[in-house]
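Listing 4. Sequential folding, example run.
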Amino acid sequence: MTDKDKIRKLKALEPASYEPIDLDRLVIYTTTELEELGVELSLENIIVGAFKLFPKKFSLAGYLEFPDATRVEKCLWRCKGKKRQWIGGKTPHGYLIIDKTRIISAQTEAELSNIELKKEPKRKRLRRKEGILKETTDSPAYSKYMSGKGELISEADFCYLLQGTLDSPRETLRENFVLLKKFAEALEREDVLTFLSWLEQRFKYFLNNNSK
């Protein structure tokens, strides 16, 4: 099956579910959806993929049956910029999914599907949550904590755990921390929740410092 055939299978989401979400996050979500389908992350594929999933947001003004390529390209340009660094790669060679891409996509999926849904989550959502929690338990911070050396966890270790750096906006780090706690709660990972609660106390001043 070609990439075109795979993209044609994408179903548009309900406009009400994505209307409040900004364009950049929708494009990032599109890239991970395409990745799951095994589609190459070329600019053209992302343009069509975003249009297929979110036609109300990515259609060309006056020609609603066609995608607005410029709108998607601008989103990717912002997402690649130093301020966000949500995705890797370049237009001529294709884009690359990085850790931050998965975090942003998971946040967006939570907004799209309402993470508080009472229905049993789909296996795809579970896989993403499990993957992100595995990154948590594979982190240097978790290793130090489990070996009884929690006091050696640095601010840099903490930021790395949250898919950020010491230069990342604290608001972004707080959002990622809240998301990790929600995933741990959803998967009933008491070990991870205990670890995160400990981190929250240790780094509460750092996390709530709005100087960055």
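-- end of first protein; second protein begins --
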Amino acid sequence: MDLGLKGKRALVMGASAGLGFGIASELVREGARVAICSRSEERIRAAAANMGAALGLAADLSVPGANRQVVEQVKEALGGLDILVVNTGGPPKGSILELSDAQWQEGFQSLWMGAVEGIRAAAPGMKERRWGRIILITSSTAREPMPGLTISSGLRAGLMGLTKIVSNELAEFGVTLNAVLPGYHATERLKELGIDEARIAAQVPARRLGRPEELGALVAFLASEQAAYITGQSLVADGGFSRGF
């Protein structure tokens, strides 16, 4: 299927590895001109060369204003932005009494305000051209909280509400906004959290972890011409792990 992405200008945040890398690589394969960013300049340049991205930028997205600045840089370099994929690293583990105010503030900036900044920077140009795709990569913890992931579970749940309300504001201009909620995927994040991959895979109905390229394929479809009537949705990709509706 031709997704109609050839020549589209895209930015994928947090794309030097893991899910972000899988998403950006899929957009490149579909013919989009893709810019990627992450905190490490060395890693992002290597990733850009590896996947054939048009641009690799180093940026610390936990810093206020960084998301907006990256979007503006990409718009200038590529002549505009058609597809924005907001993807940030997960915050640290900890219970409500263990986590510091600083960790909460950093999580809020990275997960919440980063998304707001990115949307506000990208949406005006998309509205003007009457075409755009904004996709927030959150987590299945937004729907089914995971013990220990207190910051992630709390803040990401709010992004589903943000997705719904903002998508309604943009829909008449041909701009869609959706959230993708990944479950357990084979990335470095699982190792950082100390999760036993074999034990988790045994609990997933699909009996395996997800692959980053599979999530990339879902995001590429949501960015496509064919997905123009899909907006305001929070789509879980977890192999059937979620038990709720």
